[in-house]
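Researcher: Next sequence.
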Amino acid sequence: MDTHNPDLAGTTGQTKIYERVVERIRELLESGEIKPGDKLPPERKLAEVFKVSRSSLREAIRALQENGVLESRRGDGTYVSLPPGGDLLAPFAEVMTQQRVRLWQLFQFRQAIEPQIARLAAESRTQGHLEALRQLLSMQEMECEGDENTGYADLHFHQLIAMATGNPLFLDVVTRAESKLAETRNQSLQSEERRIASLQAHRRILEAIEAGDPDTAELTMREHLSEVQGLVFDGDS
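Model: Next structure:
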């Protein structure tokens, strides 16, 4: 396998990182550089070759396994399982479609639950919760001013709002949902303009929670999620 591949993580545009990995594997199959029956290099090596995180690589491999392109053999490794002479394009198109459907379902889930969580947080938050949210906003401001975007403040802002409801079940479901959005969070916050938009939305949400205004907290969270969803799916159609 050619180890001088382009840096997939640095590619511009709306394509998600795992989709770029899927596309690169498709290109390697089409070119004959890897063939059905071949064993892929170890995960660490592949991540280095594609210049992506191992979590992004795992997501791409998992999607390709589900569609029969790759096969994981316990204790042995990952193999190309596409039959010789088979249709190369159909399984890859199916991978992209399924991933977008799952992502849309995840946003649908968040829209159904997180505005209500913000409402409850406005009713139940403590001064300790408010202080922690202010600290996260300060951290997000520093990320906006610098070049580094870890997504840490954004992730924990939503988790802390769930914690402020006083119901640990909300924190559990938000944490599970947010962990699945790690790559899309980085994608949706990739530009300075978008990072600032997210920060401003978080400020409005916090202001409503601080004021103990459940109606506004619910509305601003709903608007924020709609905006993020638009950023993530922009250019996919």
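Model: Residues 98-234 form a domain with the Four Helix Bundle (Hemerythrin (Met), subunit A) fold (CATH 1.20.120.530). The chain has two domains: 13-87, 98-234.
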